[in-house]
Amino acid sequence: xxxxxxxxxxxxxxxxxxxxxxxxxxxxxxxxxxxxxxxxxxxxxxxxxxxxxxxxxxxxxxxxxxxxxxxxxxxxxxxxxxxxxxxxxxxxxxxxxxxxxxxxxxxxxxxxxxxxxxxxxxxxxxxxxxxxxxxxxxxxxxxxxxxxxxxxxxxxxxxxxxxxxxxxxxxxxxxxxxxxxxxxxxxxxxxxxxxxxxxxxxxxxxxxxxxxxxxxxxxxxxxxxxxxxxxxxxxxxxxxxxxxxxxxxxxxxxxxxxxxxxxxxx
Length: 266
What we know:
Order of helices and strands: EEHEHEHEHEHHEEHHE
Strand content: 15-25%
Structural class: alpha/beta
Helix content: 25-40%
Radius of gyration: 18 Å
């Protein structure tokens, strides 16, 4: 895989324009826990939905070890599934999948990767969103071990597993044929890896409505909302420059997995 050109590092692009630029029609967005995608990419995903793209969400763990005022893992799992479905509805997504892994114990092993390959072959996305597999030492909360494991599992599934018909032959036998994913969009990326700023100005309230749905996670709802607005504004300033207009942006590491010049195995 090769990273996208650094020219994207200072460019702001709307979700609709980004999809047109790359010809994307189907998006698979993966999070380690309920609420990860909403913190990392809810506004961008809302923009994709508004532009008519098919968006499927996948949550790898049940989030059963997180939250406040918990009545136990089973009750928390049910609550967080409901919260994620409500958050998805807020951004316009109806299709939400849960892989059911245990919160805090996620590893990028073959069982998890096989489940992701199965899902990727079912959905056949043009682009996959995921947590970044590299730790951001400046933002340890974003570098939760489950986030890193989820990111690594997604990257390994996206290449080479999903396009290798011999990797999981039972999937091909079940009619889930190998195919090539074109791009990865990795959120929670360390600053030095970010090369894409998606302009989500005007979608801030949609993102916050999605985050508001995760009530089990927010002992200080207003503090969370202030933090998120500040983060969106800072991402926009970093991309637009000090002389640029104010706005909001979500930041990603865009990776080309299979492009026009890709040669198999290189």
